[in-house]
Amino acid sequence: MNNQSIAALDFKHIKSLSDATAASRLAREGYNILSSEKQRGLLRVIMEVITEPMFFLLMASSAIYFWLGDTHEALVLLSSVVLVIFITIYQENKTEKALQSLKDLSSPRALVIRGGKAKRIAGQEVVRGDVVVLSEGDRVPADALIEWSNNLVVNESILTGESMPVEKVADNAISTIQTPGTEKSASVYASTLVVSGSGVARVVKTANQTEVGKIGTSLAKVEPEKTRLQLEINKLIRFFAIYGFILCFSVAIIYGLKRADWLGGTLAGISLAMSVLPEEFPVILTVFMALGAWRLSKINVLTSRQKVIQALGGITVLCVDKTGTLTKNRMDLEAVDDGNQCVDVAVAGLSGSYLRLVELAMLASQQKPFDPLEKSIIKLYQKHKAKDHDSDGGDWKLVHEYPLSHEQLSITHVWQQPEQEDYLVAAKGAPEAIIGLCHLDEKQSELWMKRVHELASKGLRVLAVASASHEDGQLPHSQHDFEFKISGLLGFADPIRAEVPAAIASCHQAGVRVVMITGDYPETAVKIAQKIGLGKNPQVVTGQELSAMTPSELKERVGQTVVFARIAPEQKLRIVNAFKDNGDIVGMTGDGVNDAPALKSANVGIAMGLRGTDVAREAAGLVLLDDDFASIVKGINAGRRIYDNIRKAVVYVLAIHFPIAGITFLAVLADWPLMLLPVHLAFLELIIDPACSIAFENEPAEENAMLRPPRHPDKKTLTKRLIRIAVFQGISMLLFLVLVFKLAGYTGKTVDQTRAMVFTALIFANISLILANRSWSRSIISSFRVKNQAAWLVLGGSLIVLAITIFVPQVSKLFHFGLPGWFDLLLAAVLGGSSVLWFEFLEKKPAQKSGIGI
Fold it and tell me: Which of 159, 186, 494, 655 might form a disulfide with 726, Cβ 3.0–4.6 angstroms?
């Protein structure tokens, strides 16, 4: 049984759990996940809120008002604290739901037998008693005992520290999990890696009961490295905190000395501190990254790494596998060549030597294949075989399998024929490998390779088939010891995905080079490249040529190369590094164990979610849930959208703090009445927080997002120009607020009436600021046609609450507002709303002409 392939196993005869039993056990024993990570419950969120500086400032203000006997003011501030907590909980809940969705999607997959059928489930849903199928590249989902194995070798270094993998064998006498690292053990352990071979194992322990659970290994304990954007934001926060504290302390002292009112000075200092404190920046990073990753998952692109999200929009070179990414990975058998003549299967059908050739290829295939190429072979043979032809393995016995390896790119199956003593040996694989097995001389090799290239030039993937007869009961150690004779060639067509040409054109418009990397022949690769829009005469480098190049030569060649053909998986790392040496930001797709180094080295490694191994998915920063190239392009667009919206939110936050802090600071210096008290700032915080996070995060991508060249991630996010625009917007709003203040004084308004006008102007200035920064390539008017429900909720809510604070007497008293005339309020609204209109004319015009944006 150990010589059988895993695809030949009859899962119906394996005793396994039913779906109902598994669901019941999952509900009773819990998910197969390590519980070392602390859950962010309601109490923890509240504790985080009440330990923030803004909370202490609000509480200090409330205490002072209680001291002064102003109970209403104090209660309003306390109410604002409750509102801040509720808004924070809402944002945290939305973020946590997004992160949980990502966890569910990113959970390692496991192939289990349920009710006699194989099904792929999330690793966290594996339960005790489940039968799991293990193959090369898989992560073992739980501690289990081997019931069947075929050359199964597992790397257990995560538990033992030993880099050498260990062989696993089935042993029915073993009923308990053995010590990790034991050679030829029947035990496999959660989180270890299947290096080669295959096996079937029954789960004994899950979650924290596993060996890895006992020692407390958890990725949650690893502190992720801070990204460049995080470092920039942290630097900005430190700047505001240090200079804001100095400014607030100075204001409190100046106010107390000039007015002999130290409690008032303390309130003025607290007000300035609340207006300067940049507490929104951490919120922006948390919400944008979590919801950004969640939005990427909605377009079948999975990631949870901030660094990858930020680099995604900056990709300059995209290195893509052909099979399954650019093509459908369907592999239709279209041409058969027996060495004398090549026939088109669709036209001529199959009979005689051609049918025999396909039959041999079928015998060299897995009898229950996962590989689409083998499925095509078996399907075509069964369709065309003669009625009295019954050599399709029904009465045959598979004696031995020589598997595919890096050294020998062919598969050989040894069959016991019915009523015959000798064995039939069938082999299929890469033409060079089969020619090597047949030990052909140079002239014969050249003739066959010429026929190979003729098929490849039609865009077909080519396999060679050989057969041998073996009489001795003792099978040789190596495939090369059989006396093979080449039987012919098979040509397979892998249809191009319909969406690929348009997606590649979109990449080119966005300044992203697309490079094809494939194991196929150059002729096949060029034909596909021409069809998908990579050029009429794309430059090609073969794996053999690449091996002979020095690093400097390869670095020069990759600048012109569009197609890399006959490339071995381990050569992909050299290609990625050569592009990186040229200063490119590299996106790299892959699915196999050997692709992992290249995926890890690439700036954005992209693993295939459907056909990719767990190792590839772990090494990559992105996982394509549908293996679709078009999803990569959507991901690049989404990455640019996330990056653009973060910059807009940061500019908004920087700008809005200038008029809030400035009007308070000027009031102290110029002996004006304070226009903004802590209650006003608490109210403004309820607008600014959702505006900078939810509203801007929800903003659609710029129309020119995929019409501009990629931005290098080493370039600062907060450029001097960006900060300058934020400062100018903030100063402009402050000047208009001062204008409203002076006009109110000029027309004889009371302090409370002036405060109402200034606050109205500030609210409308804030609305104008949000509208202006919603898009840096569209005008405010055109932005009204772009859907963003969150933004309209924030803006509409601001106006409703403003109206209540001014026109409802009980509320306006709490806000220290007097009711000015309708014309005065309209004037304040118009002046505030027009405070950043200059941005439309001075900054957006160049952006619209160049298509680049700010």
Answer: 655
Cβ pair 397, 7 in contact under 8 A = no
Residue that is written with structure tokens 């992209």 in the block:
606
* Cα distance between residue 314 and residue 692, in whole Å: 23
d(Cα 91, Cα 674) in Å, to the nearest integer? 32
3-class DSSP assignment, residue 273: helix
| DSSP-derived pairing of the beta strands 513-517 and 317-321 | parallel
* Pairing relationship of beta strands 604-608 and 397-402 according to DSSP bridges: unpaired
Element (H, E) at 92: helix 71-106
Q: What are the pLDDT digits (tens) for 163-219?
A: 568 888 888 778 888 888 777 888 999 888 888 788 899 999 998 888 877 765 433
At residue 625, what is the residue type?
L
Residue with tokens 């501190």: 273
- How far is Cα 811 from Cα 443, in angstroms, rounded to an integer? 98
645 within 8 A of 700, measured Cβ to Cβ: no
What single-letter amino acid sits at 702? E
SS3 734: helix
Across the beta sheet with 461-470, what order do the strands follow? Answer: 342-344, 332-337, 485-493, 461-470, 423-429, 410-416, 397-402
Q: How far apart are CA 134 and CA 170, in angstroms?
A: 13
Is residue 511's pLDDT more than 70? yes
CA distances from 29 to 26, 33, 266, 446 (A): 5, 11, 57, 63
CA nearest neighbour of 526 among 489, 566, 497, 553: 566
664 Cβ neighbours under 8 A, 6+ residues apart: 251, 268, 271, 272, 275, 674, 675, 676
Identify any residues that bridge with 444 across adjacent strands, giving them in sequence order. none
pTM of the model: 0.71
Q: Where are the beta strands (DSSP E) in 583-686?
A: 586-590, 604-608, 622-624
| Helical packing angle, 53-68 and 71-106, nearest 10° | 160
Secondary structure (3-state) at 415: strand
Average pLDDT of the chain is: 81
Measured distance CA(17)–CA(202) in Å, rounded: 10
Could you read off the pLDDT of 42-59 as tens digits, one per residue? Answer: 666 666 666 655 555 556
pLDDT score, position 129: 92
Q: What are phi and psi of 200, to 5 degrees?
A: -125, 130
- Looking only at the bridges linking them, the beta strands covering 586-590 and 604-608 are parallel
Most confidently predicted of 96-100, 227-231, 278-282, 325-329: 325-329
